[in-house]
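Do me a favour: review this protein, sequence plus structure tokens, and tell me how the chain folds. Record follows.
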Amino acid sequence: MDTTQTAFDQAYWASQPPEIRALPGIASQDDRVSSAANLAARGFTIDVPIMVWSWDAYLVMKLRADGGYSWVPSALQQAVTIAPGLGAPGAVPYDPNNPPAGAIKVSLNLGDYPPYPAPAAPSTATAPSSDPVGAQSIGNIYLTTPGDTYAAGAQVTDSRGTFQKVVTITPFGRSSYWEKIS
């Protein structure tokens, strides 16, 4: 089925909760960034280019699909480090079949954007760990866990050692990880 840009944009925004639909109405870029970050910290899925930078939903999704993406990280998730189909020594390849929890599905199918509120689906998610430090990524770098809202520079100690949170801003949005410091 051919999806028109207008129909897709309308369906995309209609599928979002009211808090998200309010973001485009925030005129100040700084205020919109702050509001989106607050919503992401509260567990909302934030698609940075569309919801924060005000890029067109259809064009962004089409560009992603044309680039081979089946999912992209939401705000506060680790950025994709290498594009689909590419490889480099030491790089973690993009896995189109295993998106992380909370990732944004790349789709132009209007059926993937039911009007909000969407029917409640049975939850198969597990409760997030109270420890914000996830699995070891490489060396002394550890991933964040879903729901991690610690600020940059925060320190956490668990049975594995002491970790400091690092937050970086990339073209794909905010990315964070934990660095083991002792």
Observations:
- Helices lie at 5-14, 18-21, 29-41, 48-52, 57-66.
